[in-house]
Amino acid sequence: MSATEISAALQRAQSVLLRRPSAGLQHDAPATARWSQGTRVVTRHPNGAQVLTDMPTELGGSGDQVSPGWLVRAGFASCTATLVAMIAAERGVALESVDVVTSSESDTRGLLGMVDADGAPVSSGPGNVRTVVRVCARDASAEEVRSIVDEAHRRSPVGCALQHATPVALHVEVDILKAA
Q1: Domain total in the chain
Q2: How many CB atoms lie within 10 A of CB 76?
Q3: What is the pTM of this model?
Q4: Band of the pLDDT at 69, cuts 50, 70, 90?
Q5: In the chain, N or C: fewer CB atoms in 10 Å?
Q6: Does residue 37 form part of some domain?
Q7: Torsion angle defined by CA atoms of residues 88, 12, 78 and 27, in that order, rounded to the nearest 10 degrees
Q8: Which CATH number do you get for residue 131?
């Protein structure tokens, strides 16, 4: 889609949502993950798309696929780049390129359920998340471009999930097979 088409689509969506705010509430497409073998997992989208993950060899995996943690960083980087493109289209700023690199640090001890020297559980979540956004735009000021990136960062659904405590409801269903 061109920037003009993106802008028109966003304007149509905003027009509908101004009239009917409740139309903005939706159920997001579920991600369905199925263990394959070892530490390999196949995650599917309802549209048929799928992603294969595995752990690095140091943690019992093959190391030949991306890890689930990498998908979090990829989702954040991709969401940020998408929002930059959408907001630039809204504002009539012509983009040449958008590159987003998201990195973080994790402590493997948390993944392994280990505790710190003081006995406190080590977090398995990412820390020190850092995102670098490089934008090349035509006929725009640096301030305009920075404003677009700031707005993208503020509106990113994945960014919001990472930056704010999002409650997660866990429901467990168990099937037990009896020996014959």
Answers
A1: 1
A2: 23
A3: 0.88
A4: very high
A5: C
A6: no
A7: 160
A8: 3.30.300.20
